Fold this sequence. Notes:
Layout lengths: L1 E2 L9 H13 L23 H13 L2 E2 L3 H13 L8 H8 L2 H15 L2
Parallel strand pairs: 1-2
Amino acid sequence: MCVNAPPGGAAPAGETVRILEIADALPSDEAVWDRSIRTDDPVNGRYTLYTALATACHEVTGRYFHRHPALEAVRAEIEARAAGQRWKHHLAKFNAQASLEDVKAVLTSAIAVNVV
């Protein structure tokens, strides 16, 4: 089930960081990273940036929030790195055009911004 945002529109900073940390751990290397634009479930244990974030969000909150602050933090980092791109689905398109190193850098930056 996709819900736009957590109740009240905000999430505890610890929750946001935990989602980002889990998402960062899921595509741990090239063998488990899926470079496609897939936005549904992971396939054969391989994760896109989107599926890693969705899986982590569900694991931490019990559901997927499309506009969770963790996902918004990653979107902001992508926007900063790929300024001028007019992507409809930032997470999916960035994942398809980036390297795993780029994906990990975006997640690491999003974590750093949200550590209190």
